[in-house]
Amino acid sequence: MGHHSASVWDFRVATEITKDWNGIDQIVLRNPQGASARVSLHGAQVTSWRNEQGQELLFTSSKALFKAPKAMRGGIPICFPQFGNCGSLDLHGFVRNRMWAIDDNPPPLPANHSGSKTFVDLILKSSDENMKCWPHSFEFRLRVSLATDGDLCLTSRVRNINGKSFSFSFAYHTYLLVSDISEIRIEGLETLDYLDNLSHKERFTEQGDAITFESEVDRVYLSAPNIIAVLDHERKRTFLIRKEGLPDVAVWNPWEKKSKAMTDFGDDEYKHMVCVDGAVIEKPVNLKAGEEWTGKMQISIVPSSFCSERLGLERSGLF
């Protein structure tokens, strides 16, 4: 099957709606080079992102439960209106456990978000069910796009359509697939303060010149730069995570003991995943009536040799 040239690339070929094994609709995005992404209407969760060679880039547990109302263990679940566990709300909030709809008429995004991309717009509106556990009226729009160069981009917009203001935390809980966690380095978070969830959210300062993994890690790095690199030494490739409107970065690997305790996670799977989340955690967003918040994350893959050089170049002009 020959590649289409970009000029005749047909949008209808580029997006397709299929059903997963629960009969839930999922949207498949494809670019002309053969990269793809899958987004489920259950939770608006990105469940797969593959490069041009068809290799999966996101981790999903082999033991993941694909049964509503539980969010699937892997991919990119969306955590809203809270990250973590506090109060009466579900862990990581409820939007990842709701059925979303395709948004046929989204308000336009700013010009710099356009370009040659295949994308889908999803929407979740507050319902009576939400109101019981979180009594606020909102509209949550998510655009998932796959660029011609294979970059995956998620843009979330939350609007308060309520009379009273509300606050929320947020994270793109991004499970990256890696060759071996003990060979992974994360650059861009050195010298930052972080809250350590393994020490009752106590605040520490990162001392290493990069983050490496030898045991369980569950941290929220505060006021992080807008570009973070996750270097996979064995695969000689690097995930570059760029973010806007998302000051914090959560980093998580459950390691051995926690992995064995999770029913929807294989005992040794911690070796092949790391969560690096663009997030708003330390200082929740406060939205007054009629206001809208936007949080954007873009993930690219580059050969590792380019990484430090590109990091330097791109700190200033992000997107």
UniProtKB/TrEMBL annotation:
The lineage of its organism: Eukaryota, Viridiplantae, Streptophyta, Embryophyta, Tracheophyta. It comes from the Eukaryota. One of its GO terms (biological process) is carbohydrate metabolic process. It holds the Pfam family Aldose_epim. It catalyses: alpha-D-glucose 6-phosphate = beta-D-glucose 6-phosphate. GO terms for cellular component: cytoplasm. Its EC number is 5.1.3.15. Belongs to the glucose-6-phosphate 1-epimerase family. This is glucose-6-phosphate 1-epimerase. The keyword Phosphoprotein does not apply. Keywords: Isomerase. One of its GO terms (molecular function) is glucose-6-phosphate 1-epimerase activity. It is an enzyme of class 5 (isomerase). It comes from Lupinus albus (White lupine).
